[in-house]
Specification:
There is one protein chain. The chain is of the alpha+beta class and about 500 residues long. About 20% of the residues lie in helices and about 30% in strands. It has a five-stranded mixed β-sheet with strand order 18-19-20-21-25, with no helix packed on it. The chain has a four-stranded antiparallel β-sheet with strand order 1-29-28-27.
Length: about 500
């Protein structure tokens, strides 16, 4: 073999970097657990707009701010995928489009020639649901119609539960439905008995659906119970919007009385109430608990200071209403002559998507997103192969709808009462096995002791023994049942008559 040149030796020695493992772990911990940065105003009266932010950031971040002028088919609803890479928009006059909003690559663009109430991505970016005027349709990323869900008719709002593969909807009559998109079957459906409902949200922590009604009540629903799990009187006027944060601990609601209320879902207590300039038509929580509210043609963003309270202060202090001041506002953006319909923070990106009457706006909101993502959960840079593998894994790990409850940690607890009952019943049973019989047939002449005939005689003896054993067990169970009937008092046994149906039922 030829000797290595001097150039090769120098190159290899220069590329080696000696790094201590302790220093590397220390650096990784600092990066992973470092606090995200926020904008700070030098002056109290300083106004930070989007133009100033775009001029201050780098070129790659500045490209995330854009506006789509679509004034013919608005107002628009929007929805980001779970990994924050793809964006789905739907205009109320029938325009639907999906694209990679970072590279601006268009996947599909269609016009359904019908009114659209809501759009929602399903478990992957190749399928999405559109709530149209009459029925709900499912399309792929090429704009091809895959399914027409006639079970979901006149739907006003959609929500998708990714871990359960459930598409939840509420229609004009207040009928709540759950569809399993992996099987194509209806899991549950029941009437809310509160009339028309246009406000809907989901709790990411326990997959409970929150509905806001015209009487100021917010109801919490599960597909396992036909009645609401919780009823909360949040406002004195009709609910306009609601949102729940990523941990599932806090909920914000807005109504026609211009109030923004913050609730603790662990205790169902009100933390704070803010008087806004107008009723917020839409609300959104970021991954870092920033609050965005759409007030007519203006987007107002509050910092997470509103939900940082001590439990002692909440119990002792009386509830009061604060007026919105300039100091409370983190950022503000105004859309000229356009009513805001929808808001959503992009996952893992400091971006807020705004859907309004004249199109879509992508705003930069520093410090709103989580920088460290779990590639096994939601990977913004996944390939086609990784997406297919994740889809198979998600289907295998699908959570059954019967497990949806207010407290998801009850699954790991032991039901002691039921366990004790099972142990008592188990001890009452007779655990006996028939005795093993070592039977060897006698040797017979003239071909009667062949192997087949010997085995047949063995089976006949074992069957007779088993039959006697079963008789003994049944006799024991009969005697035990008679003893239990004698112990129970006969007065508890109610005798029913034919004419009892004409008696008045006691209230």
């Amino acid at each position: 073999m030829s000797e290595k040149s001097r150039f090769f030796n120098k190159k290899t020695t220069k590329s080696r970097i000696n790094v201590d493992k302790r220093d590397l772990n220390h650096i990784m911990n600092d990066v992973a657990f470092a606090q995200s940065g926020f904008l700070e105003k030098e002056d109290e009266n300083e106004i930070i707009n989007q133009r100033a932010i775009v001029e201050s950031v780098d070129l790659f971040s500045a490209q995330k701010y854009f506006e789509l002028n679509l004034d013919k088919f608005g107002p628009y609803s929007l929805n980001y995928t779970r990994n924050g890479r793809h964006l789905l928009i739907g205009g109320s006059l029938g325009h639907v489009a999906s694209f990679d909003w970072q590279t601006k690559k268009l996947h599909c663009e269609i016009n359904v020639m019908e009114k659209i109430n809501d759009v929602k991505w399903l478990h992957i970016e190749t399928m999405y649901a559109v709530a149209q005027r009459q029925w709900t349709y499912i399309y792929d990323n090429q704009g091809i119609e895959l399914h027409c869900l006639k079970i979901l008719d006149r739907v006003t709002r959609l929500e998708f539960l990714p871990y359960h593969f459930l598409l939840s909807s509420i229609n004009e009559c207040g009928y709540l439905s759950y569809i399993d998109v992996s099987l194509g079957k209806k899991v549950a459906g029941f009437s809310t008995s509160h009339g028309r409902c246009d406000v809907m949200g989901q709790n990411p922590a326990n997959a409970i659906i929150h509905l806001g009604h015209h009487n100021g009540v917010v109801t919490l629903w599960s597909p396992n119970v036909k009645e609401p799990l919780v009823k909360m009187l949040c406002h004195k006027a009709a609910i306009k919007s609601l949102a729940i944060n990523q941990t599932g601990n806090y909920m914000i609601t807005s109504s026609l009385d211009h109030l923004l209320n913050i609730w603790d879902l662990r205790t169902y207590k009100q933390l704070k109430s803010i008087k806004l300039n107008a009723g917020a038509s839409c609300l959104a929580f970021s991954q870092k608990d920033l609050i965005a509210a759409g007030l007519r043609n203006e987007v107002v963003i509050f910092k997470d200071d509103y939900i940082k309270f001590n439990e002692e202060e909440i119990d002792t202090e009386e509830q009061y209403i604060d007026d919105m001041t300039q100091d409370d506002i983190y950022l503000k953006h105004r859309v000229n002559n356009a009513n805001i319909k929808n808001l959503q923070f992009c996952p893992f990106e400091d971006v807020l998507g705004v859907g309004h009457s004249y199109g879509i706006s992508s705003l930069l909101v520093p410090g709103s997103a989580e920088a460290n993502f779990d590639a096994m959960e939601a990977n913004p840079y996944e390939s086609k192969t990784q997406r297919k593998q994740w889809e198979v894994k998600a289907l295998l790990e699908k959570i059954q709808p019967e497990l949806i409850s207010l407290d998801p940690f009850k699954l790991k607890q032991v039901d002691r009462k039921t366990l004790e009952e099972k142990m008592i019943e188990r001890n009452k049973k007779l655990f006996l096995k028939p005795k093993k019989i070592d039977f060897e047939p006698k040797q017979k002449m003239k071909g009667k002791s062949k192997t087949g005939r010997k085995e047949a005689r063995k089976k006949a003896v074992k069957a007779a023994n088993l039959k006697e054993f079963v008789k003994e067990v049944k006799e024991y169970e009969r005697i035990e049942k008679e003893e239990n009937e004698i112990i129970e008092p006969k007065e508890n046994k109610k005798v029913y008559n034919v004419f009892d149906r004409f008696k008045k039922k006691s209230k």
